Amino acid sequence: MEFEGQVALVTGASRGIGRAVAIRLAELGCDIALNYRSSTTEAEQVAEHITKLGRRAELLQGDVSDPEVPARLAAGVLASFGRIDVLVNNAGITRDELLLNQSLKDIRDVLDTNLVAPMLTVQAVAPAMMRRRYGRIVNISSSAASKPGRGQSNYAAAKGGLEAFTKAMAVELASRKVLVNAVAPGVINTDMTETIRGHGEDEIMSRLLLKTYAEPETIADAVAYLASPRNTYTTGEVLHIDGGLKMA
């Protein structure tokens, strides 16, 4: 129970990787603030699961692409728990299409959710961590940042920016003992990647060294280490969990 007494905010926590991360942190003793956009039933199920583990769970609804939401989330966590030790910026969307066919809305929606929202959430959460001289921030990137597929220009740009932002924040927050890292999953068995897996499975498998997709729990284990008190010396890193996809 290495997270005993700690509080984590996980964005996009109702499904997929966010759900797995929230549950894994709760299993390790963390109380969880669950952010979700619209999947109320799924979010309530995650909260119920966490409660059954003996941990506290609070639901915080909000679309993080709305620039007013990140500050509201941080305030909600502090009002409910009085502290925040871990932030996992997981919420993300895709709008895959060749750039020549992308609308401005497709570009902005992906950048706002995958890049601007994590920046604003860190901006809102970091002061509380800095005051306590402790914090762990983990941003969920993607293998698309370094190995994008066709039609992923908006998503790759957002995730590439997120990785650069991760390193910049590691520099800014190190003196206050706040460690900032990223995890870059490959193709994971989630609803979000279902279309990608369905339309390009042969190409994906040809690039995967391990010839299999990972489950969300694999990513959750990596996040749990980077977010844990055991991590005392890793910051500004991007951990690739992609079955060797980036090496192809």
Features:
7 strands, Rossmann fold, 15% strand, SDR_fam, 248 residues, oxidoreductase activity, alpha/beta
In the CATH hierarchy, what is the superfamily? NAD(P)-binding Rossmann-like Domain
**Rounded Rg:** 17 Å
**Unreliable sequence segments:** none
Residue-averaged pLDDT: 93
* Classification by helices and strands: alpha/beta
Quick one: overall form?
A: globular
In the CATH hierarchy, the third-tier topology is known as Rossmann fold
Count of DSSP helices? Answer: 7
Protein name: 3-oxoacyl-[acyl-carrier protein] reductase
Keywords: Oxidoreductase
Domain Ketoreductase: 6-177
InterPro entries: KR_dom, NAD(P)-bd_dom_sf, Sc_DH/Rdtase_CS, SDR, SDR_fam
What does the model show?
This is 3-oxoacyl-[acyl-carrier protein] reductase. InterPro entries: KR_dom, NAD(P)-bd_dom_sf, Sc_DH/Rdtase_CS, SDR, SDR_fam. One of its GO terms (molecular function) is oxidoreductase activity. There is one protein chain. By secondary structure, this protein is α/β, with parallel strands linked by helices. It has one domain (about 5-240): NAD(P)-binding Rossmann-like Domain (Rossmann fold, 3-Layer(aba) Sandwich). The protein is about 45% helix and about 15% strand. The protein is built from seven helices and seven strands. Strands 3-2-1-4-5-6-7 form a seven-stranded parallel beta sheet, with helices on both faces. Strand 2 (about 30-35), helix 2 and strand 3 (about 55-60) form a beta-alpha-beta unit. Helix 1 packs across helix 7 (about 215-225). It is globular, with a radius of gyration of 17 Å. The mean pLDDT is about 95.
